[in-house]
Amino acid sequence: MSAATIPNVLVTTDWVAQHAADTGVRVVEVDVDTTAYDQGHVPGAAGWNWTTELCDTLIRDIVPIKKLEELLGKSGIDNKTTIVLYGDNNNWFAAWAFWQLKIYGHEDVRIMDGGRKKWVAEGKELNTDEPPFPPKTYRASAPDLSIRAFLPEVQQAVAQKSAALVDVRSPQEFTGEILAPPGLPETCQRGGHIPGAKSIPWAKACNDDGTFKSAGDLQALYGGAGITADKPVIAYCRIGERSSHTWFVLKYLLGFQNVKNYDGSWTEWGNLVGAAVEKP
Amino acid sequence: MKPEEQSRQQLELAGWPVIVESYRLGDVYHCTISNADPGARITRADGSTRNEAEQRAIEKATRYLGQTRRFSTR
Description:
The complex is a heterodimer of chains A (280) and B (74). By secondary structure, chain A is α/β, with parallel strands linked by helices. Chain A has two domains: 10-143, Oxidized Rhodanese, domain 1 (3-Layer(aba) Sandwich), CATH 3.40.250.10; 146-269, 3-Layer(aba) Sandwich (Oxidized Rhodanese, domain 1), CATH 3.40.250. Chain A has helices spanning 13-19, 65-74, 88-103, 115-121, 151-160, 171-175, 215-224, 241-253, 265-269, and strands at 10-11, 25-30, 46-48, 55-56, 61-62, 82-86, 109-112, 164-167, 198-199, 233-236, 259-261. Chain A is globular and about 50 Å long. The relative contact order of chain A is 0.16. The N and C termini of chain B lie far apart (52 Å). Chain B is of the alpha+beta class and 74 residues long. Chain B has a four-stranded antiparallel beta sheet, covered by helices on one side. Chain B has one helix and four strands. Chain B has one domain (4-65). In chain B, a hairpin with a 2-residue loop joins strand 2 and strand 3 (28-35).
């Protein structure tokens, strides 16, 4: 088990196996591959589709407040529910959902350490049916944008060095050798990285079994690259989900007070006319 | 049901290293293929045998990976 600076944000697969059906607990799977839920999921878990349910499908934005309230309500979640998120790719989109739930003020959100990978590797029970949930009423808080970075703030960070930028993509994306992870659609016009950004791929925060590394190892990883809690930090990737994973690590496992996720990420910066791009 | 007969191997498809993972759940074999770095899932497929599921996933993954271009880093 990783040592989290902030308590009650990580739960083990064993904890989930014991408590998934508890009253007041709702387990939710959120995957990169939106069909993975149908391949088998934690018994009793809801499945959320990040491409349709965790975003605004008209304009590029996070999920609108009313839509989130409806999603949570139909998932049997109210404001007091303990939400336990997990997913594939070491919890990329589970972290994306966690970040949005924190923007809208949900108090008790946790991540299953190791995600779907560890659950399956341990041979734990999987169900393929979608359970019914008694609908609840959910009231979200006004969005807390202190954990979200928009383009002007990133431009200011570059110009004034007012925040440390962490690029969590793969080294090949950082250098501009490729525009997107191999096998995925290219969604930007230029390759490279935001000037001054440090390359710390998200996966370095994880062990081979998908769990998060210890707080000591994480401290060494980020501190060794000059990313420390005494300066604002902005994390970015390609579309904002991998960087929400790193945002979670910095804010909840290392306790950084001022860390933001730039969800515009490279698909915004790498498409901007005239934006400065750095290549090694 | 519990996942059984789990398998994990690294292959190279269209010049890219990938991870091929499969398991059986009941009567169905499920296969997923992810790029080795950054670990994003590229394809998945099902089949009545492991070979069938893996070959279907490999065929799709090879097609997608073949569209990834490499650029100069200068």
